[in-house]
Amino acid sequence: MERQWWQDKVCYQIWPKSFKDSNGDGVGDIPGIIDRLDYLKELGADILWLSPVYKSPLADEGYDIADYRGIDPRFGTMEDMERLLAETKRRGMYVVMDLVVNHCSDEHPWFQKALADPEGPYGKYFYFRKGKNGAPPTNWRGYFGGSVWSPVPGREDLYYLHLFCKKQPDLDWENPAVRREVVEMVNWWLDKGVAGFRVDAIVNIGKPERFEDFAPDRPDGLADCRKMLADPVSRQRLHAYLGQLRDEAFAPHNAFTVGEVFDTDPAELALFIGQGGFFSSMFDFAAACWGGSPKGWYDAKKPGPDNYRDCCFDSALRAAGVGFLSNIIENHDEPRGASRYLPEEAANDPRAQKALAAVQMLLPGLPFLYQGQEIGMTNTVFPSIDAVDDVNTHGEYAAALAAGLAPGEALARVARWSRDNARTPVQWSAEHAAGFTAGTPWLPVNPNYARVNAAAQQGVEGSVLEFYKSLIRLRKNDKYKEVLVWGGFEPVHQEQAGLAAFVRAGGGRRLLIASNLSGEAQQVELPGAAKEVLLCSDGAPGLAGDILTLAPWQAAVVELA
Ligand code: TEU
Q: What is the pTM (predicted TM-score) of this model?
């Protein structure tokens, strides 16, 4: 496999609204990001993925774009964006934007023109369909709950399609004019100096030839819209559109792209991330999807450390020799990784957070950190459903109530998985509003900020932040880069509960990564003679003959002879 410029990099996701506010309005902004570039550089982040900063009514927090070539004034100006590009370049860093093109905002001029004349040229940018006997054209349920169809105001029996919220009308990719607009816009940003894109919700652009009802799958009488993704025509179309984006925009710029790809057939992996695939990489959502329920995510099961390990190992084996998956424990759509994968009593334990970090950062593939992960931020508390901002959480809360759950129980369920857990402001210090803003933060800070914050960890040995830095330094160290970036992967002792252990081999070296994801000491039989302990999360591991002893929640990297 030909090597690519981005493979030895470390990525960091910024969710701008909650990263750092520079002007006291309580909303994070681009100047705030520029202000923290030295912090990110010191952490070892190379590629910064910015969730959307485009002009938007923020109905879905920027994933509803009203102008693809404009910056929302809440986040700054185009001059700020250009300064960010220059300042990152100066530090040898890269900026990756979010490409949200399954849909736009209903406030985008395309949709406004389409509403004014659904039969005109802009009507063909979207999906307008006649209803069926007074009901919407199909019985599909959208990602955030409710019908995917909303009536066109002032038009009897005419609807438009939105797989997400009703302020996010789907673009019709079968229309070559839509594809042309997107290709030109992508090239415009790449010419401006962005290094690539994280590609949002992209599998949804492939739609079937005909829109037909599916068998209802919940008490609401609707059927999951994702059923259309399996349609062979949807799939063929998806591949054709992605091929065009790659050939006409990504490839000529040697861009880095990472797809938000759910619902792939393992057989499609090479097509997506193999040599010459549609994307450079795609996220591994195996662990995030573990325990999912057909009733909705309010009903999902909580995974434990062993489930996390098994999902990651399966994915790593599947991708071996094919391409680079992007590894995450959390993002802006998920609860905090520590709260999700660690047992409840350990979620706030820095030792456990470090043990989880060692696995994620040293697996094969590309590590992605999400803002605040590096300081061990955890889920927040929601005093009531009114304290929740996220549109998706409100949809799930409604589904939980409709399924018969009492309001208190419904709140407890959605609180565990809510996207707002990841969206509370980054905790920079123990000062006012965790140092995020001089004003009132748009979403309350997590009450644990006095204890969990960057200032308290910066330069402090044994802190979660410093441990992430040492993991990143190890991955980038010239001596170990070959094995940790491009080396092979072999799970060991996978049957041992509470242990995540694997061997990376390459460039003449073999490294054992062993992480004790349990509160009990563990003995690990070494798969070879120990040569040197390269890294340990806390103190030093016990080494006697061919047995490595790990203290509770201790992780170690051992070079084998
Ligand atoms: O997410 C796509 C997606 O499938 C989500 O609905 C996901 O299943 C859900 O958020 C899990 O909680 C992307 C973005 O990451 C998300 O923030 C947007 O809301 C969505 O697309 C629409 O653009």
A: 0.98
